[in-house]
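Changelog-adjacent note: as of this version, every example in the card shows the full chain rather than a window. The one below runs 398 residues end to end.
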Amino acid sequence: MKKEIYTVLMGIIMMSNGTSWHCLNSATPIVEYKESDNCSIERFNARRIKHSNVVENQDFYGFNILDTSKVSNYDCNVIYDFNSEENGFVIDFDYDNGVGYAIYKGKGDENSLMEFSVSQHSPYYGYEGKYLYNNVGQYYLASNDGSLENLLLKSNGLGDKQEEYVKKEFQYKTGFVKDEYEISDFYTAYSSSMVDDLNNCANTAGVIVLNYWNKQHSNKILNLTKTNRWNMLDDDAKYYMHEFYNYMKTNKILGTYGGTLPKDCHDGFEKFISDHGFETEKTMLTSYADIKRQIDLGIPIFITSDQYYFTNEYSRPPDPISQYGTHTMAVNYNHYWGISNSHTFVGYGYLEQEFISMNNEKFNMNFIKVATGNGNDCYFNLSMSMAFDVAAIKVSKC
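Full-length structure tokens:
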């Protein structure tokens, strides 16, 4: 079953041509497993079959209302968010001569379809436990013994932290830089190691974004007595990291293994800004085009991932060769994965490359320039990674 599930998951990820969006909170509570509540086939039948990649109101693969006369042996279970609150439901069923599943996310009747198939079971099928889910590609199982299993990455428990230094290369016929931009004078030198707080990457990201907006508003947010070319001094950065530790409820769930939920990161940042007399506007981003649009507007973005490729071998990834021929693109990456590697960092630029493959197929390699929270910047390969929470927060005068 596990091998079969892995094949299913890879098929889901590849549907979006390498740029997948997944929502998983970066900390997970210990939950006591109780048998999931059943939910009704009628709720499933009452919904139109849609998918987030399909134009609003357009039926998914020609389905309108699922013909429930062809549905048998269905199993409908509640899914939960990472605060152990009900977050929708997953239904597995036999359909016609095959099988299928659908995952709906949302509270009560405010559900929206996240995934749908009439050719395979859901990733949760056959497992007993509490189903934790926030978006496509993130499927977690909490068992009654307190363990947590990542059904996609097969990473068991919060202590499983993995990384590698790896070269990725491919051949292509021709390529070019399609688009490139970064927010000017963006300061990236603040590091989570400046303070002793554990799991404080989101706090550090908050300081990096706060510093940017404080500069944009001529120091009117913080009213610092001393700055370094409008950037806050290290002692001030440490102070505000501690402030965000509380504002963002860091480690409130699992102590030293806790970290910060993306929603708490956003809410804490916005509350801090509000407490200092400014207002915010948050936009959740679900595509590379969304990210580029916000960065073009001068709005840095919060990114959270637990499967990511960073490269800083070059000041920027090498440009493709435009002359037709047989070329090799080779880039060295630091690759991190596993739930204990969940990391929040800040995007402030992008680099979009377009290639023609040896099979004459067009494809893109999409990078985001990021402040890592380790005192440096690098390029985050979005096409190879999984960013499960991406948000832009604009700060304005009230």
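Structural remarks: Helices lie at 2-14, 41-45, 201-216, 234-247, 262-275, 288-296.
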